[in-house]
Amino acid sequence: MRTPLREENQLRKSNSGWGWVLITLHWVTAVTVFSMFAVGLWMVDLNYYSDWYKTAPHWHKSVGLLLAGLTLFRFVWRMVSPRPKRLGGDLERVAASIAHLSIYLMLFSLFISGYLISTADNRAIDVFNWFTVPSLGELFDDQEDIAGSIHFYLAWALIIFIGVHVLAALKHHFFDKDATLKRMLGLQ
Questions:
Q1: What's the pLDDT at 13?
Q2: 72 alpha-carbon distance from chain centroid
Q3: What secondary structure letter does DSSP report for 125?
Q4: How many domains does the chain have?
Q5: Residue 126's domain is classified under what CATH number?
Q6: Which residues pair with 132 in a beta bridge?
Q7: How far is CA 49 from the centre of its chain?
Q8: pLDDT above 90 as % of the chain
Q9: N or C, which end of the chain has less CB nearby within 10 Å?
Q10: What residues make up the domain containing 133?
Q11: Alpha-carbon span 139 to 132, nearest angstrom
Q12: Which residues face 127 on adjacent strands?
């Protein structure tokens, strides 16, 4: 029988696993990041005569800003929810904490650099015609180019870092045989 406390623990973290809110946000973020990376690589090769020349950047910016809001919510939710008991040795736990913090820092840096690219010409960003994010204008010389380079290299760094993150989760599952991966799949 379900109790209100049990239902709350399913939404939030518990001592044994992550709640459904964080699990869902984790996988939505993962799929979105890989999709945005692929679209970003494809988008830079579009020419003016392509049907997607204006549509793809509009979608990329819109999804990026929505993901920024979702990531901020996820970060706050993670901070105010109880933390499940960490698995692995001391070194692994420290490495995991640094890795998760690094992923958040890279994500927020990507959001900021993307915003700086898009607003350097003093135009606001229209998010799917739902709302508009105002521009702060050009804050420094060559803002669009500098922010573009940062955005590009950060995107690659994030994808590589996430690849290592996936390998670590698989190591925990197949070699350490602990519940790290099961927790993030909602099986624990």
A1: 57
A2: 9
A3: E
A4: 1
A5: 1.20.950.20
A6: 126
A7: 32
A8: 65
A9: N
A10: 4-184
A11: 19
A12: 131
Tens of pLDDT, residue by residue over 130-151, are 999 999 999 999 999 999 999 9
3-state secondary structure of 95: helix
In which residue are the tokens 């994030």 written? Answer: 158
DSSP 34-93: HHHHHHHHHHTT--TTSTTTTHHHHHHHHHHHHHHHHHHHHHHHHHHSPPPPPPS-HHHH
Q: Which amino acid is at 13?
A: K
* Residues listed for the chain: 188
The arithmetic mean of pLDDT across residues 81-105, rounded, is 87
In the block, residue with structure tokens 């204006």: 54
- Report residue 24 as tokens: 């869902």
The per-residue pLDDT for range 5-17, each reduced to its tens digit, is 444 456 665 556 7
Tell me which residue has tokens 């995991």.
Answer: 96
**pLDDT reported for residue 2:** 45
How many Cβ atoms are within 10 Å of 53's Cβ, its own excluded?
12
What phi and psi, each to the nearest 5 degrees, are found at residue 126?
-90, 120
> 133 has which bridge partners?
125
CA dihedral 116, 120, 33, 7 (to 10 degrees): 60
Cβ 178 vs Cβ 172: under 8 Å? yes
Q: What are phi and psi of 139, to 5 degrees?
A: -90, -20
From CA 61, how far away is CA 40, in angstroms rounded?
A: 10
